[in-house]
Amino acid sequence: MAMFSTLGVLKSAIGNPISRVVLTRSIARCPKCNDRRLRIALARYAGVNVKACLSCRMYSFVIGGIIDIGRVLFRTSKREMRNFFNSHVTRRGLASIVRGIAEHGITQPQQLGAPFLVVWDFTHACNLNCKHCYQRADRPLPDELTTEEAKRLIKELADADVVALAFSGGEPLMRPDFYELAAYARSLGIYVALATNGTLITKEVAKRLKKLDIYVEISLDGASAKTHDEFRGVPGMFDRTINGIKNCVEAGLYTCVATTATKFNLNEIQETYELTLSLGCKRQMIFNFVPTGRGAEMANLDISPDEREQLLEQSYANLVSSGGCDVLGTAPQLARIALSHAQGVKGGPLVSAHFATSANLGEHTRLLAEFLGGCGAGRIYCAIESNGDVLPCVFMPIKVGNIREKPFLEIWRTSQVLRDLRDRSRLKGHCGECEYRYVCGGCRARAYGYFGDYDMPDPGCVNNLRYWQKLKEAEGEQLQVSAEAKAAA
């Protein structure tokens, strides 16, 4: 009941028409201060000394009061809240939330004014030949964005208050202007991440990355050279990847190891976690296998719902251990696992989403989880291809626009596909009736990959076991992939 009363207070206090009008007007740029009123208000709340005219000071007072309502509901002190907003990255995220509330009110899950995260498949060039590659990356495409086009895109994302930009690929380090563009994004206040295979990260490269102060995610798909190299398609890459990880850790970079779980490496996932821990990495990210790109050809290696449930249980156990390495993933069911374990356990460690750890907020943790909403495809995250095509998710090859043809925010706001993905009432099967549908929602990319319909159930969940069995029966134990996934392959 506490959760529902808290939600009711939030809707009444923040989602009411008057508050939404104030929030909408705060998004506008002040001609005197030459910045958005909201940004000024958030900076002033955090105690940052910024220029503010009388009008902006008034907006700061009102917005500060709105923040304090949320602070009191979540039992957080003003000092803690100010410290939280002291980071410009945090303020950027809140600005996106406020824009979403102004445009849509309080929703479950919350709709945002712009995505928290954009994954940019920066180039199609790659030095490996991975079996599961969603891009079939090998060499640069002729229509990739130029450096100047890329800078215009980054400026658009910064102006939209996108919090984080992940350079992915292909292999982003193979594009000569990576450092220039990553530095440009950082200069505009965007949190920058690099998704790489790690084989090109020498000690010198790691030092250059450290100067940019970015988050580095390195793919490692097994605890042995045999498993990793076979998965990655080129012999000798395991040792080069391990060296890349070591170089990043030594340089002081926040280093994450990314592992895609399949039957091929399932028996090495725990060993890979232990290796990640021993290398000094801060995080292991377990990726859901999605049958798209080259992956459509190896759907028979997808793990079963029961195997995935056991993996998520083990991931949660590793997460809450005192090992010092977070274990998160792209399977939204991890949030369900965490919440179900912690119910009734006072002070128990929780995650509010499958992709992020959180402080324990007691009975309000579930509310935060429903706010973040599990699968973020087209809702709190999207992808951009090397040629400017915008997709809901890197694993969901549905073009919803191109930034050469329309502004990014226009695509984000008007795409019917993205609107559909934000509406959990559309979900079919158990996903549509599950008590965790706002916390999890199932992986929409897996639904699309197997059924060609992003509203279908995620067949990788134990609650949708009959859909998994139907897929196997249709192809005589060889998993059936949708025509759309085959076309993308």
Helix content: 40-55%
- Write out the strand line-up for the largest beta sheet, numbering strands in chain order: 9-8-7-6-5-4-3-12-13-14
Largest sheet: 10 strands, mixed
Shape: globular
Please state the average pLDDT score: 89
User: End-to-end distance, in Å?
Assistant: 47 Å
Structural class: alpha/beta
Count of discrete alpha- or pi-helical segments spanning 4 or more residues: 20
Count all strands and give the number. 14
Strand content: 5-15%
Instruction: Show unreliable segments.
Output: 344-349
Q: Please state the CA-atom Rg, rounded to the nearest Å.
A: 22 Å
Explain this structure:
The protein has about 500 residues and is of the alpha/beta class. It is about 45% helix and about 10% strand. The protein is built from 20 helices and 14 strands. The strands form three sheets. A ten-stranded mixed β-sheet has the order 9-8-7-6-5-4-3-12-13-14. Strands 1-2 form a two-stranded antiparallel sheet. Strands 10-11 form a two-stranded antiparallel ribbon. The chain is globular. The chain starts with a helix and ends with a helix. About 50% of the residues are buried.
